[in-house]
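Hi everyone, sorry if this is the wrong subforum. Our group has a chain we'd like a structural model of before ordering constructs, and none of us has done structure prediction before. Sequence below.
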Amino acid sequence: MHLRHHWFFREGGPDMPVTITLDDDLASRLKREAEARQVSVQQWAVQVLNGPRGILDQSEAWRELNIRRFDLIHRRHHGGLSETEAAELDELQSIADQWLKPMDRRRLEHLASYEELANA
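Answer:
Right subforum, don't worry. Here is the predicted structure as tokens:
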């Protein structure tokens, strides 16, 4: 899959057209993730390449994705999901894991002292 993308320089410079080639699996994943966020593949690629600031900018996008994730979870348990929706939920679950991992790590570190006390 070839993606043609325009980069936008924040300093006000000109657009720079860039073409990248991805294997089918990576291209499909990029497309699914973009669809889950309801943005174009090109917009999602820019967000990914911008790093953590660009991905889930930040809390508001996460909130919207999480609402969608909860909706899909509810629908999965009350009538089922289409294959497309199931794939979307898998992607959203993966995003949730990544988003929550730093919070989980901090909570586990906080609980470690209590675990030490309990084992003493």
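For your construct planning: Confidence is low (pLDDT under 50) at residues 2-12. The first helix runs from residue 24 to 37.
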